[in-house]
Amino acid sequence: MQNDEMIWQVIGHFSCSFRVSTKLQGKDTQNFCQNKHNVTGLCNRSSCPLANSRYATILEEKGRCYLYMKTIERAHTPKKLWQKVKLNRNYAKALEQIDSHLQYWPNFLVHKNKQRLTKITQYLIRMKRLALKVRPKIVTVPARKEKVERKREAKAEAASNVDREIEKELLQRLQNGTYGDIYNIRPKVLDKVLEENEKEDVEGSLLSEEEEEEGGSMSEGEEESFEMEEEDEDEEEEEDITFVEGYDYLEDSDIESLPSPLVGDEADDGEYGGDDDDEEEGKDEDGRSARDARKRRPSSSKRGGKKSLKKPRK
Q1: Which helix or strand (DSSP H or E) is residue 223 part of?
Q2: Can you tell me the distance from the alpha carbon of 123 to that of 50, in angstroms, rounded to the nearest whole number?
Q3: Per-residue pLDDT tens for 162-179?
Q4: Is residue 78 within 8 Å of residue 64, measured between CB atoms?
Q5: Which ranges of the chain have pLDDT less than 70?
């Protein structure tokens, strides 16, 4: 026969495998119970599941709450000692189930079971909310590797000149009029920008003047070159003048049939004069006689002269 008082005197005053003792600062020692069926978690006479033959508690399994009840009638069968009742997901309906199953039980157990159900329901809701949120994954990083990465970041930042790039971008936006007409700029920076703009304007004006001067000089040079080319062309045209023999198409018979020059008074009275005609005819005859002589003239080889030796071309 089970005696609850005797069991509590043994495990409560001597030794219990589920008891955990802690000493609070400035207070007496507090004992806790590690048994999963303990409804409060404290080690005392009313909360001990071993020293109470009539006991009830609530446990959570895979997100669902169950009501466990123990009675003295099932003490002789340890396999069926606890009766398990599945509670509804709705909190209000679960409270109603607890009231119906623990109708004639001590008020202490009814109240503590309702408190336990409330706590379990709250942390289940909190678990669902945390599961929906995106949480960062914590990964261990070696201290040496982290130190090397910090050094690399510092070097990259020093090489990139972030401040200068930001300043250039802001100045470009200022010149483009991105921010309107009102600015809150430091005087030194504003003076610097104005000086740079003046330098750019002066350089642009000088370059434009030089280009204009170069353009004018080029035009004068081109005119001179054109004049020189025209003079060279005139000289070339004058130098290309050649003399060609006249009356090549006439034969000896034609020359003989030409009218004879005027003699005596007729020559003197002629309007055009015959001296010029005579000279031209004489020249033609002399030219023909010279050509005929060249044709009839034997070559040096036929006359017995020395043969001309030509050197081979290299």
Answers
A1: helix 187-239
A2: 27
A3: 777 887 887 788 777 776
A4: no
A5: 1, 24-27, 179-187, 189-190, 211-314
Cross-strand bridge partners of residue 66: 59, 86
> Which of 220-238 are b and which e, b meaning 16 or more Cβ less than 10 Å from the residue's Cβ?
eeeeeeeeeeeeeeeeeee
Task: Measure the CA–CA gap between 24 and 26, rounded to whole angstroms.
Answer: 6
Biggest CA–CA distance in the chain, Å, is 196
Q: Convert 166-185 to b/e letters by CB count within 10 Å (16 or more is b).
A: eeeeebeeeeeeeeeeeeee
Query: Which has the closest alpha carbon to 30: 40, 9, 39?
Result: 40
Long-range contact list for 302-309, CB < 8 A, 24+ apart? none
The total of other beta-carbon atoms located within 10 Å of residue 47's CB is: 20
pTM value > 0.70: no
Helix and strand numbers, DSSP H then E, in the chain? 9, 5
pLDDT tens digit sequence for 59-99: 999 889 999 999 888 888 888 899 999 999 999 999 999 99
Where does residue 67 rank: exposed (0-12), middle (13-18), buried (19+ CB within 10 A)? buried
